[in-house]
Records
---
Amino acid sequence: MAKKKHFYLILILGSLAALGPFSIDMYLPGFVDIAQDLNSTESTVALSLSSFFIGISAGQLLYGPLLDKFGRKKPLYFGLALYIVASILCLAVTNVNQLIVLRFVQAIGSCATAVASVAMVRDLFSVEESPKVFASLMLVIAVSPMLAPTAGGYLIAALGWKYVFVFLGFMAVLILLASIFKLPESYKPDPNYSLKPKPILNSFLGVLKEPQFSTYALISSITFSGLFAYVSSSPTVFMKIYEVSKTGYGWIFALLSVAFIGSSQLNSVILRWFTSKKIVTWALLAQCAFSLIFLVFALNDWLSLYSTIGFIALFLCCLGFINPNAAALSLAPFSKNAGSASALMGALQMGLGALASVVVSLFSEHSVVPMPLVMTLAAFIALFCLFVGTRFIKTEIAASADATVVGH
């Protein structure tokens, strides 16, 4: 009986973690159809993705304090209810600006599920069990970008793009019901927890003053913005420029997700022989080289569908090595402020990702160039941050469970 309860808990928490990735990726194959139906352009429709990233960035900073103040379930219910209402309203949009605003609201709602799932793993499972549960959540998050665009492509081809929001709303209703009836309240509300801006801001400022955090969090966030540039421009590049079908686009997106996930899994093996810092350095150098060659090919009109897929796969492979190591190094100096540091890093990633997707959407819809241009800029700026930032780190804390905490 205990094993069955354990299974249901992980299933619900995994569903909470999956809602965000599904919300980002499932409607991507519909960009061309959405633009036609709303008398807009794919570039403007892409701003609805940017607004979603901005909502996630803001929401990560919002829900952490709320979960500690009011317990886990009340903020979770609020977020899911907000998400469901926004999904229903997305069905009634008559112009692209309405969609952009509603996607922001939807993101604020979905953030509750992401933050609550992580917090509840820590609450509900022992120190020995938590790593296995987190691994299950990470697998769900990793697999979602492979499943969501493929499923979305078939759904849009069969029924139209609005049915994506029907599916997402229905998914959120099921998760809400499961949370109400099957998920226990795992944290006692703390009425003394302050929601005043000053102590919260002081906590974040304390994190930013740690050179190791600011260096590696920037590297992680800036290189991640290259991923968001790819995600936001990929519908235009593959479906409009290369004239791939909606379902074909879903399969390409799934294939490229395998490149990212595969390299991040391989990273765990390589860590037996190399330090996180060394892996970040070499992966960044490789990413700079691959993205620059990608840009040269794009500027000279040498790209084909397959070479474009190949260059993106190489960029994502490098990211699979950079991101986990940079994230681990950025969080290594913290114990007390680990939650604030994690939330701040997530907000930085999503904020810079939103900026990258906005920049890409401002360019022409008839060229592949904006994608490799933003990727190249991201890789070289991150490399610059590595060489400059590491000079300010007096004693680097290793990214391991045995890392000691250094205060500055």
---
Amino acid sequence: MAALDLSLPGLGRCLRLVDAPEVTRTLVATLPGWTPSVCPARGGAPAIRLYRCGAGYRQYAPALPGGLDLPTATAAASSLIADLAGEVLAADRNQDLLGLHCASVEIDGRLAIFPEAHRAGKSTLSLAFAAAGYRLFGDDVLGLTPTGEGMALGIAPRLRLPLPEGLAPELLAYFHRHAGPGDCRYRFLRPSRLAAHGETRPLAAIVLLERDAGLAAAEVVRLSPGEGLAQLLRQNFADERDDAALMPRLLPLMERLPCLLLRYAEPLAAARELARVLRAGVEVPAREAGRMVASRGGPLVPSHRWRPAPRVHAYPLGDELFLIHGPSGGIHRLNASGHAVWALLAEEALSLDALADCLAEHFDRPRTTLARDLHALLAGLVEAGLVIPAEPLADAS
């Protein structure tokens, strides 16, 4: 059996492929932003290994100690790329590089990033930017440097097949011209303008996606910064770091970057509209999206006093507040009124009645309505372990 070792700059000899020349060719083709080298295997095998297994392949890696069966060369290359990206972002290799699940495109020297959202079309949209003449930094993974710049990994983008209906003929023609290796499920593309591994650019905006086939034209809406922060906290590779440790990296980004929502039906038109907005600094309408903690709990005694639980970390962002429950790692997001409640409880232990009295005048709302909303919020905070009784409840009755 022929065994080959693949080496990448910065990683060295990182992958062994045994009796799988077609996977080797596919893999090299999907790393156009790198300069990989392939040579006959020597010495002990690297941690990532792939072997031919019947008509398919079997992969082993630190995250796959039991092995993973892969049916095609494209599927094998896709799986190997995921592990190689993990190696690049691994904390023991580069403590300061944070990996984000997002697509990214360069517009006037800065990056618009599109965090992962299930079937929202970020890969198709990022390639639509490439078809419109913009530079692609990646369709799935972006490194975030300590200074808040995005770093390309040099990996070819990949489309899910079959392609969605209703794509512009110009975009379909671009896909066909730049098609790379593929199978019945996925097709890699080699766009004409793909950033090389290690290239960096400052960020311009965080853009969430909403695909709606019924829209006549693409539209861009401004969201609260909390929307972007919530998405980035969910879409990172830093499994070994808790969210409290990530906040110093992500909060400064959200304090200076706009968070936008791109609603669209056809990707190429959407790419051109977003580029127009970002390049011209066009003012876009706002959509409020603050959230309060939901509760499934029972009624609270109005006279019981509550205070913040220990090991709860609070991070303000604009009018909103993010709370991270230290023991569980749970993330909770409060809107402006929830933020006000937390600020009051942080000053002194208060009851539901006292909170209602404090906030009724401040928010200029009927006390009855406010008390009902406060009950739902406070019950949610109690249920999440974010607040605790100021004294034993049995003594407070």
---
Amino acid sequence: MNVRAIITGSTGMVGKAALIECLDSEAVEAVLVINRRPIDIQHPKLKEVLLSDFTKIDSIKEQLRGYNACFHCMGVSAVGMSEAQYTHITYDMTKALADTLYEINPDLVFEYVSGVGTDSSEKGSLMWGRVKGRTENMLLAKGFKDAYALRPGGIIPEKGVKSSTGWYNFFYAIMRPFFPLMKKMDSIITSSQLGKAMINSALYPNQNKVLEVRDLKIQANK
């Protein structure tokens, strides 16, 4: 199967990593990015749709047809947010996207990037962990052909990938001399590995539906 992927959040580090690997991969024949602001990338197999409010994803339904994978990389920090605000962005917008894509093509592979510490029980003390856990559970039970919750830990940027958070980039610049050592750590994955893991998860089904860092590294090498 050739992958025809929808990517959200491609202006952020994880989404940009997925986009770069998709554009480089012979296994990916088409990419549609849905963003709140435009990206400055031109490529023969790339299309872009701008959407400021993801709860209105139904308004671009016709442009979502013909794709067999979705890499949902959009996300925000919970810092300074109430649980209601964070739930709206993390859960409600994701559900709107999933509902629309399921209506169009239930045979799609949906991959949601959450993170280490996500709480599948939805009962933990960390608000963001509960909300992401609820989001994971909703997606895994939706009924898609296949679905995965990806939980990367620390991410080392490669191929020009940058974080949309300024101080993260400052931190990466300081830590760059230690990248070779960090790559050997079980809790660290590179942006290239993460992007390849997304593509390979769409191509090669995995029995595990919640993919931690070690699982993602294995997927990247398939």
---
Amino acid sequence: MPLPRYRYPSDTSDLEWALLKALLPTPACQTPKGGAPEKWPRRRVVDAIRYITDNGAK
């Protein structure tokens, strides 16, 4: 069962995500060396980092 998706003011907009996505390295699972698939979508990870940066760990 997927987690519910909440929207927060600190979440990335589509325009911000388009700019950030280009700056992230290629996932290891898509390289010739290989690797495990990512467990969480990258955009949600970035949103989580921005949420903690904006609100702090209370």
